[in-house]
Design brief:
heterodimer; A: alpha+beta; 5-stranded antiparallel sheet; 9 strands; B: 215 residues; alpha+beta; 4-stranded antiparallel sheet; 8 strands; elongated; signal (chain A); GOLD_dom (chain A); Emp24-like (chain A); coiled coil (chain A); Transmembrane p24 trafficking protein 9 (chain A)
Chain lengths: 222, 215
């Protein structure tokens, strides 16, 4: 058949890169609204987030790429509520972070618009894609950099997957310990409070009887 | 000229999406406040097999309403107050599919919901290659190990969510036990001292109690 034009051949790898958000999940966000997502991850795990925004154009009644001035503010907090990433990106952005403590990380996004009229009562459409751990690795890049054959690359992928499983299991052990501590604390509390309450009850009973007896004796009723 | 170029590019994009059966797996965990509804949208091509799986991680009775609509607004899936579910469907038309999670039935508990929306199959490791020969035995073995590990990771995620749910319930129980015990001890003291004070008040300020008590 006819050889496709070189320009068309070139668009393919370009599209692979550009189109990473072409069919991503999207949602609508208000002007002052803050949307947060939680990622519970083990430590030393890389997280890559890609987003793309579109603004509703009332005249054309469709969503168009947002004006360059409109950006998103991305804030990432670690399980101890410490901010590990706090940056403003443009209307299209990519943020990366690596967790240093295992647990629930919170990724929050809100638009940096200070002019309330900018959205014109509409909503901002945000395409978001968050990849964690093994899914975040770019195999094409690794293959090119280390010059791996297909088999070597597949084995590399398996190694990454197994490492992720190992990390997750390690994290699981730490979580199970916390769970066990909570359960044991509940057990202790129930035990001690039952004993203390019984003692209080008995002591109060004695005090009431003694007090009333001495009171009635004073009143010469008994 | 510009418009023509854009038109060609759009056609190429759709054609490639069709060829590759562009796959996406989006999994997100988000917080759903009380009386709130959160919707997500995804553009899907006809014929793609998609799976939506969700689980409520923390909050209240651990349930949420879920609804999935196709581009024309027909309801494909609708369940109320579900803790966990998995729904597979094949896209019958091109367009934007919408799925919503609603916590509108709850007055003061906010929920944390996890969902995993898988569209199509996973992209191949080498998108640029032309498969001229069948996979060798080593490569097929690698592929099957990869699939098995993927299901291991999947099970791990489900397990992690259930553990988070259990842990959240245990921590709730722990705080409730503490508050309840302290509250009950205080009530006990207040009531018993109150009883004595009340009883005393019946008998005080009346010097001629023996005759008055009866009336």
């Amino acid at each position: 058949g006819k050889m496709p034009s070189p320009k068309l051949l070139l668009t393919f790898p370009l599209l692979t890169v550009m189109c990473s958000l072409c069919s991503a999940l999207y949602f609508h966000i208000g002007e002052t609204e803050k949307k947060c997502f939680i990622e519970e991850i083990p430590d030393e795990t890389m997280v890559i987030g890609n987003y793309r925004t579109q603004l509703y154009d009332k005249q054309r009644e469709e969503y168009l790429p947002a004006t360059p001035g409109l950006g998103m503010f991305v804030e990432v907090k670690d399980p101890d509520d410490k901010v590990i990433l706090s940056r403003q990106y443009g209307s299209e952005g990519r943020f990366t972070f690596t967790s240093h403590t295992p647990g629930e990380h919170q990724i929050c996004l809100h638009s940096n618009s200070s002019k309330f009229a900018l959205f014109a009562g509409g909503m901002l459409r945000v395409h978001l894609d968050i990849q964690v751990g093994e899914h975040a690795t770019d195999y094409a890049e690794i293959a090119a950099k280390d010059k791996l054959t297909e088999l070597q690359l597949r084995v590399r992928q398996l190694i990454e997957q197994v490492e992720q499983i190992q990390k997750e299991q390690n994290y699981q052990r730490y979580r199970e310990e916390r769970f066990r501590q909570t359960s044991e604390s509940t057990n202790q509390r129930v035990l001690w409070w039952s004993i203390i309450q019984t003692l209080i009850l008995v002591a109060i009973g004695f005090w009431q009887m003694r007090h009333l007896k001495s009171f009635f004796e004073a009143k010469k009723l008994v | 000229m510009q418009g023509f170029g854009v038109a060609i590019l759009t056609q190429v994009i759709w054609a490639q999406l069709l060829l590759l059966g562009w796959a996406r797996a989006s999994e997100l965990t988000f917080e759903l406040p009380d009386n709130a509804k959160q919707c997500f949208y995804e553009d899907i091509i006809v014929g793609t097999k998609c799976t939506l799986e969700f689980q409520v991680v923390t909050g209240g009775h651990y349930d949420v309403d879920c609804r999935l609509d196709d581009p024309d607004g027909n309801v494909l899936y609708k369940e109320m107050k579900k803790q966990y579910d998995s729904f597979t469907f094949t896209a019958s038309k091109n367009g934007s599919y919408k799925f919503c999670f609603s916590n509108e039935f709850s007055t003061f508990t906010h929920k944390t919901v996890y969902f995993d929306f898988q569209v199509g199959e996973d992209p191949p490791l080498f998108p640029n290659e032309n498969r001229v020969s069948a996979l060798t035995q080593m490569e097929s073995a690698c592929v099957s190990i990869h699939e098995a590990l993927k299901s291991v990771i999947d099970y791990q995620t489900r397990f992690r969510l259930r553990e988070a749910q259990g842990r959240s319930r245990a921590e709730d129980l722990n705080t409730r036990v503490a508050f309840w015990s302290i509250g009950e001890a205080i009530i006990l003291l207040v009531v018993s001292i109150g009883q004595v004070v009340l009883l005393r008040s019946f008998f005080s300020d009346k010097k001629t109690t023996t005759t008055r008590v009866g009336s």
